[in-house]
Amino acid sequence: MTDDPSRRKVLKNSGVLAGAALLSGAGGRAAQASPRTAAEPSPVVELPSGRLRGATEGGLSVFKGVPYAAPPVGALRWRPAQPHPGWQGTRDATAFGPSAPQPYREGGDQVLGTHGSPPFDEDCLTLNVWTPGTDAAKRPVMVWIHGGGFISGSGSMPNYSGETFARDGDLVVVTVNYRLGPLGYLYFGEDGAGGNFWLTDQLAALRWVRDNIAAFGGDPDDITVAGQSGGALSVAALAGARPKGRPLFRRAILQSPPLGLKIPTRSESLERTAAFLDILGAKNVTELRAVPWQRLIAATFEMFGRTGRWGYWSTPFLPVLDGVTLDRDPADLLLGGAGADIDVLLGWTREEANFAFALSDPYVAATKEQVVARARDTFGNRAEQAYTAYEEARPGARPVDVLMDLITDDLFRMPAVALAERRAARGRPVWAYQFNLPTPAHGGRLAAAHCLELPFVFNNFDKWSQAPFLAGLNPRVRDGLASTMHTAWISFIRTGDPNHHPMPQWGRYDQDTRTTMALDSVTTSVGDLAGYWRRLHHPAGR
Q: Which residues are known to be catalytic?
């Protein structure tokens, strides 16, 4: 490993929410800008769209609520993102913009707590920037795309603050709001028009970053796009962009991408849209454009009931293979074309599905017969054999444990391994990890659940005080693993290689070793970590 000055700088600092109550943005909590002192002058940048004044927070220049596209309201509801017209004078950028409309319950759930808080508004297409300096340093750029089952989350959540990455890695960090739920994912097929309005938002944000980030001290030719869960699926979908001129990004981090989702076709998506129209008593998109967003979001709860299937992670809204904005499975976009040359770091948590199922009484009461029936969807006439294999791999396993491991493999682990295999076969760079550290919260039932790696990646546990699933973690183990992971992510963003001292050597995933980093209280590099399960799911493979 070469001695890179940027690496030395790094080493120096070495799910789905559905609430029962809906809260509109009117009574929400507005984000407050941190107080400034005379010793911390307000940073100002000049952009083609206008002048921005941000704030100095903890030695970083921070710009919040920056519009990157026109408000998608009125006639622009369910239209692709349009350019922002700009503004006159100096625009204040010291407070976050509203989050995308989404279900909300005060206090949240038993796992994450809350995941996106008021105020909410359709006028939500803004982003936030953290930078060590608005100079000409040309720092590497990290763009973070939040997850949330396609219905929740926000780039302004404290959990996803760019502060730690910007300070510890000398990076420029951007977080993005984009349309969620029915406003982002409904498909109407109007006159051959596309759907995936969420994706048009994210593409508009990436173009904004490419065109403007130099003013914030960033390098437009050194962008890493990172995301988790639905945000990681977004990263893969964005890899297929074929913009004029230079690529939109050069590296990708995919944390727990649900690549096992079957992305609906146009006709399948129109069936979902018909169900949504029926819930609201609307005949078409024209009538739906007149419905207040609060009613649209409230209809999400019934959509869960209409689209859910036993033994599957519930996703009432999904992307669409519309042939316009998305013409193939997102994973395929990282194998050819523009996506083939992108450096990829991807991974999963060992017990992803425990997030959604371990604390659910109906699933805890599942029978073997129910789980075997669900396993037939994956294994056909080998379902009984697969059930036995999963049962034997976890001593004392109950049917729900087998089900959760099966869902984890179906939705997350096996498709991620398959992507790593396919990239390795093409000689394309890919690093793989499995996050193994279990949380003792809820009597250990969550284990290493979906989302658990997030505070380790950001190394900002102080911003996760509302998250019940972190209760009881040993601070020494927690902080040690967080330092290892956070620094590895920074190293990958800066150099395209996650290795750093004193972490064990993290080799690329290739066809010979299939190296996977097991992230735990003791981090180790493992050869073909998922090999047994890969062969169980694909017995014809090696």
A: 229, 352, 450
